[in-house]
Amino acid sequence: MGLVAVIGAGVMGETLLSGLLRAGRAPGDLVVAERRPDRAAELRAKYGVEVIGNVEAVEKADTVVLVVKPQDMGAVVDEIAGSVKPGALVVSLAAGITTEFLEQRLPAGTPVVRVMPNTPALVDQGMAAISAGAHCDDEHLAHAESLLSAVGKVVQVAEKHQDAVTAISGSGPAYIFYVTEAMIEAGVFLGLPRTTATELVVQTLYGAATMLRETGDHPSVLRENVTSPGGTTVAALRTLDDHKVRAAFISALEAARDRSHELASGQ
Ligand SMILES: NC(=O)C1=CN([C@@H]2O[C@H](COP(=O)(O)OP(=O)(O)OC[C@H]3O[C@@H](n4cnc5c(N)ncnc54)[C@H](O)[C@@H]3O)[C@@H](O)[C@H]2O)C=CC1
Ligand SMILES: O=C(O)[C@@H]1CCC=N1
To answer: Could you tell me if residue 163 is inside a domain?
Structure first.
């Protein structure tokens, strides 16, 4: 894999950087480029990594990982294109940005992998989907996979599915945190102390997620097991249906999918 350059170290860039270090990669095997000087200093102090300019980082990197916002991607790629080492792999973690967008701006034949990660990578429980660009071989894909598997699961998907993946697992943690907040507020409304409500909700989510993963049972089966006839759960679920929560989820994820698609055009 050689030297890895992380270009853009905000939330997602730091998540990947910290995961690679946790997985045993030496700080000397990584360089970071970050536009904000205060952030650069923070990362240098926290991780002992070299933080340098975009071009300088790319010049020496065998793998270039782009983690800037989709809206900044065109400017960054135009800046670094002339400095990418022949044979270096370019990996993009940006929502919406296609491999074609990058290939058109990079030297002809540059291998590009598009990745959609998510923030649970911070606790090594990430979910990343990867797609090959036009000049990628199996070795390039394996290389990108090994980078992301340091912080969680990795699946390969056809690039046409990446906007849907972004809507589901890329943005997904936010929906879960939103539901968590709503359940905690409901607990407070029902008179529970906030700390108690929080502990109940977080452990319930963790337990339910663990059941889904460990039993492999369909969520409908697991939900039915909680839903006693004429009981409390069915009363709550009926109210959720009255408020069209299931339909709202479908519309919400459709909006995220569409927004991901729009981001490709720099909007
Ligand atoms: N936050 C998330 O949950 C996820 C984010 N992503 C993708 O990761 C990318 C970054 O997102 P976040 O980390 O959330 O954003 P962010 O705003 O926290 O980080 C972006 C970083 O790039 C830096 N930057 C901007 N222009 C630069 C330049 N020209 N040179 C060097 N550094 C530059 C910024 O200073 C900032 O620190 C986006 O493309 C996003 O679609 C993908 C999946 C999940
Ligand atoms: O909200 C966003 O655009 C990024 C991509 C997926 C998660 N966060």
So the answer is: no
